Amino acid sequence: MKDVNKKGRIQLAAARTVAYTILIFLAVLCLFSFYMLIINASRSNAQLQGGFAVWFGGHFFDNLRNAWNDASINIPRGMLNSFIIAACCAVLTTYFSALTAYGIHVYDFKLKKAAFLFIMAVMMIPPQVSAVGFIKLCYRFRLTNNYLPLILPSIASPVVFFYMKQYLESVLPLEMVEAARIDGAHEFRTFNQIVLPIMKPAFAVQMIFAFVSSWNNYFIPTLLLDKAELKTVPIMIAQLRSADYSKFDMGKVYMFILLAILPVLIVYIILSKSIIRGATAGAVKG
Amino acid sequence: MKKRRGVSYSKWGYIFILPFFISYILFSLIPQITTFYNAFFENYRNGLSQVGPNYVGFGNFIKLFTPAKNGSIDILRYFGNTMILWLLGAVPQVLVALLLAVFFTSFRLNLKGQQFFKTVIYMPNLIMASAFSMLFFTLFSPVGPVNQLLMSSGMLEKSFDFLGMMIPVRLLISLMNFLMWFGNTTILLMAGIQGIDQSMFEAAQIDGANSLQTFFRVTLPLLAPILVYTIITAMIGGLQMFDVPQVLTNGKGTPDRTSMTIVMYLNNYLQTSKNYGMAGAISVVLFIISAILSLVVYHTLSKPYKK
């Protein structure tokens, strides 16, 4: 009996060592490129040409100033543009997804099932397959170099709808809606003042995801925005790539990349726990 | 549940779902239909003059599948590239995620620092793909830090052109995709394993099953639905692969278009030549492929475990 125990303990220790080794290796793999980014964003062009380094170079704020004031790539403007679009998308996506989920969850109507099945069926369609028609539509109605076609489509987000529906099913007893009705509350009021507060956690998580995916979005914006002052961050990053690379101050290039990902990185570091929890909730039942 | 009669609330259902459907119809459904419609017209810019739109029937599709002078059919080639790039990233992604999900959920292992590891491996998923790709471009450029490191440590004589050769470029793209998605997959599979009835594992243990047997006989079959879901979404995501190879290769799919994906091909027609006919035809093909793939994967993987 003792032998079995001992054997078991050795096996467990070995298994743990293997597990930790793999985890640490993957963590290093994930962090390596970002670590290099931060280090290199603090080094001058001369230092960067000079060779590899594992520690800061002391030029972080020089690079920041240079990148921030760059004439051809107006990164502060790009960040502001991206922020405006992403914030609008986050609000519209969450509000209207919740509204739709509530409509289908609470009310009985003839097309209820059809509406639900339709949304589920279109959930998997890649957005790129309607790009041609979308771009042509924008050209026809003179909506290029305009943020509306980047913001308004976020009203219809099947994935967020699905998440909100799952959430409502688990937190909203229909009796509560009935009670509000007996108290004479208007249907919209019930939704805005009673249901929305209950859904706060779902809103928070989905707002972050909607914000991040809009902030990172590259495919459609690059087809619609060509005025310099309207460009978003990912377009500027791609511009950086197509510019004549050898003439660039590399410290500045790293700083541009860092600025592009920094807002999301900061939000993630603060809220990682709830973001990770939110990443699963919508999909588990799917 | 009691139903109050007398007042009909059904109209509110319609009112509440109306904005969603208006937006969807306007910005997705109509564009989808006009995209398919455009596939049957010749419509592009040739220098300063505009050609079409002229109805050409299946002309664009025939052109799409007509071999070039060297005998290769571009769209098939790019589809092949996309699949290779996707598989190189997705196979390790699913396997590693499965392994990590088992590690994280194992009571026996009872690993410490889980929150830290989860935070780190999930992070790349939220990072802007184009910026991540630009970062890899600078890190792996001939004068970049990776080459500097390899040369100063004496492992290389002169700099290695990671971005000029097919295999390194493909591996870099797949590595980025892997890094961006394995954390996400891990989290999903973990939730799946945690959703399995705990008594199943206890029963297996009482029957004397070891960890491997438990994994293959209990965890894997019960995880199948979520695994299917994960693979389907990963595959459809893979078909849309664009940002990473576009930025890494500056839209050219270098070297010699061996890392050109289908959506990059589509983007070329949309951005440079404004060839809506050919772009429409590619969209139709992409739509059909994604529809078939999701059906095929769903059926082959979900049947054996269906209750």
Report on this structure:
The complex is a heterodimer of chains A (286) and B (307). Chain A is built from 14 helices and no strands. Chain A folds into 2 domains: 2-59; 65-281, MetI-like (MetI-like fold), CATH 1.10.3720. With 286 residues, chain A is mainly α. In chain A, helix 4 (75-106) packs across helix 8 (158-171), helix 4 packs across helix 11 (200-216) and helix 13 packs across helix 14 (250-281). The model of chain A is unreliable at 282-286 (pLDDT under 50). Chain A has helices at 2-40, 45-50, 60-68, 75-106, 112-122, 131-140, 148-151, 158-171, 174-182, 187-198, 200-216, 219-224, 233-242, 250-281. In chain B, helix 1 (10-38) crosses helix 12 (276-302), helix 3 (74-105) packs across helix 7 (166-194) and helix 4 packs across helix 7 (166-194). The mean pLDDT of chain B is 87. Chain B has helices at 10-38, 59-64, 74-105, 114-122, 129-139, 145-152, 166-194, 198-206, 211-239, 243-248, 262-271, 276-302, and strands at residues 41-46, 49-55. Chain B has 12 helices and 2 strands; from the N terminus they run αββααααααααααα. Chain B is globular and about 75 Å long. Chain B is mainly alpha-helical and 307 residues long. Chain B has a domain at 73-128 and 166-302: Orthogonal Bundle (MetI-like fold), CATH 1.10.3720. In chain B, strands 1-2 form a two-stranded antiparallel ribbon. At the A-B interface, helix 1, helix 4, helix 5, helix 6 and helix 9 of A face helix 1, helix 3, helix 4, helix 5 and helix 6 of B.
